[in-house]
C-alpha cells in the first residue's frame, strides 16, 4: 500500500504526491500496470495513447461518443480477469455485464446492447462456464440489455486462468447530455452514491481466506437506473465516474488532472460501512483506494447539488448518497481532504498495486 | 486431423459426416471447443445460445445488425490469442485489427471505429507491447478506422500467455445491403477471393520450426476494400464470410446448415498455392480446413456471378478469385465436392482441433 503524505499544521507539500518510476524504465509489464492507479495511467498515457492518438481516446473517458445519424452513441470495452471467478456477492459474469453497463451509464448513455468475448482455458469445468453464462443472462435481463454478438477462444492449459471475458457495449446518448472528465469547474459539488470499498474487500477476503464477523459482499450492480433518475431530476451532471480499480482516490485524482482543477473532500462525509472500515484497518488499506463495482461519483453544478442528492437517495442503490466535497480552483490537479481530526492531506492516486485482478 | 469420408463410384454416405460427442458428455472445456469447427459450433449452440438467446445471436453471423435512427450499424467482437505473437507475415496486433474489420466487412458494413481490450501477462517485454501497439495503429490507419476506446488488464505471471487482445468494432451498413448466412438459394454461385491456407500454415511452420523452400507467410489483410468494390459493381451478395478458424470447409458447411441448402464444389477450381499444397501434403492437412485471414467467400445470385468475379479480380487482394461451386437444393445441410479425380466427397466441418490458437 502506498504511503499518503500527511499534512503538518494544515500544510501539505504537493511535491510529496507519488511520482513512480517513468514507464521508460520498465523493460517488462508488471502487475501495477493494471492497478487502475498511477502506473496504469502512465502505461496508457506513455505507451498506448501515442500509438492510438485520437480525440476520443485522449479524453480518457469510460467510453467513446460517436455521432450516428442525428444521434450519438456511446461505445465502450472492458476485459474481466477477476480471480476467483465466483466471490461473495457475485461472479465474473455478473461483474462483466454490470461493469460494461456502468461504463456506458458513466457516459450518460442508455445501454443498448453488449458483445461477449470469452477466452477459456482448456480444462475449465463446463459447469462453471454454464454458471457464468447464466449469470450474465440474468444480469443482462435485469438491465434490459441484449447480448447480441460473441466470440469464444480456447487456450491450452496453463496459458490462461480458467475464464477471461471481454464485454463491449453500445449505448444511446440522450440529447443534451454532455459528460466529460474535463468539464469539472470550481464550485461544483462532488457526490458519491454510497458506501465504498465493499467489492475490493470481498475479493480480498475470499482470496486470502479471511473471515469477518459480518461477511462483506461485492457491491456489483448496474448503475444505469440511478443515472436515469439523476438525469430525470433535471440535473446536468458534468462528470459521472464509477470508482472501480484504484478506488475513489484514483478516480477523483484523474478527473482533477484532466480538468485542471483541485478538489477538497470532507473525510467525515465519505460513507464507509463499519465492516469495510474495520477490514481496511486490519489490512492496512485506505478505503479510498479500494475498488467499488456499484458506486458512482457525480460532479454537478453547485446549484443542482441538493436536487442531485435527492435523486440519488431516491434510488435503491443510492440511499447512502452524500455530498463529499467540492471542486476548487486552487491545488490544480490535486485532491485534498480535510481529515476527521481536522488536518488536510493529499489524496493521491493508487501508486503501486494493491490488489491485482479485482475485476 | 479428421478423416473425410471418400466417395466410392460417386456414392457418398451423408451419415458418414462427423458427429462428435454431444456437448453434455464433456465435463470440461477442451481445445477443440475453440477450433472453429464442429465442436465450437456445438459449444455455441448448446451452451452459449440457450443462455443468451435472441434474434441477432441466433443468426450466428460475424456480427449483429442494430437499428440506429434511420440507419443500421454492424457490431462485432473478437478476442485474439494467436501464438506466437509475431509470425511470418504479421503479428497479433495487425491480425486483430484486420480480423475485426473483416467481421464488419462480412456483414456488408463500412468499418467506423474499434475498441481495444488488452490482457497482459506480468513479464511481457515492454518492447513487444509497443511493437503490437504500433502494428495495430498501422493496420487501423491502412483501413482508415479509429481505435476510439480501450481497456488494459494485467494478470500475474503464468496466468495468461504474454498478450491477448479483444477488438470489438462498429460499422455502418449501407442502405439496401442484406447479408445473412440464411439467405443462400439453390443456383447461387459460390466465389472464393483467393488461394487458401496461407495463415494456418504460416503459424504452424513457425510454431513447429518447419522450414519450406519458399517461406509461407500469413495472408492477414483487411477485406473491407474488396467488399466495397463488390458492392460498387452492383452485385447483391447474399452471404459474405471470411473462412478463418476451421477453414473454407467449416464456413461453407455452417452456411449450408443455416440456410438449409446443399453445395457442390469443384476441387479443381479452388485456388491453392503450390507451397501451401505441398506443406499440407507433408503435414497431412486438408487445405479446406486450414485458416485464412485475408480471404473471402461470396455467395451471389447466379446471374451476378460474372460481375462479382470481375469485381473481386479487379481488387489487389482478389487477383486469384474463382467461382468454386454452386448452391444446390439436394443434400440439404451438406457440402459436396467433385474431386480432381472425378469422384464426389463430403466436405465436412473440422471436427476436432487441427491447430489451436491460430488467431
Give a structural overview.
2 copies of one chain form a homodimer. By secondary structure, chain A is α+β, with helices and mostly antiparallel strands. Chain A is 29% helix and 23% strand. Chain A contains 9 helices and 14 strands. In chain A, strands 9-11-8-12-10-13-14 form a 7-stranded mixed beta sheet, with helices on both faces. Chain A has a 5-stranded mixed beta sheet with strand order 1-2-7-5-6, with helices on one face. In chain A, strand 1 and strand 2 form a beta hairpin. In chain A, helix 3 (92-106) runs parallel beside helix 4 (126-143). The radius of gyration of chain A is 20 Å and the shape is globular. The model of chain A is unreliable at 1-18 (pLDDT under 50). Chains A and B meet through helix 1, strand 1, strand 2, strand 5 and helix 4 of A and helix 1, strand 1, strand 2, strand 5 and helix 4 of B.
Coarse structural class of chain A: alpha+beta
Uncertain stretches of chain A: 1-18
Distance between the termini of chain A: 18 Å
Instruction: Note the run of SSEs of chain A as H and E.
Output: HHEEEEHEHEEEHHEHEHEHEEE
Q: Tell me the greatest interface.
A: A-B, 80 and 80 residues
Q: How much of the residues of chain A is beta strand, in percent?
A: 15-25%
User: What overall geometry of chain A do the principal axes of the alpha carbons give?
Assistant: globular
Helix content of chain A: 25-40%
How do the strands line up in the largest sheet of chain A?
9-11-8-12-10-13-14
The radius of gyration computed from the alpha-carbon positions of chain A, rounded to a whole number of angstroms, is 20 Å
Mean pLDDT of chain A, to the nearest integer, reads 90
Regarding quaternary structure, how should these chains be classified?
Answer: homodimer
Count helical runs of chain A.
9
The overall strand count of chain A is: 14
Biggest beta sheet summary of chain A: 7 strands, mixed
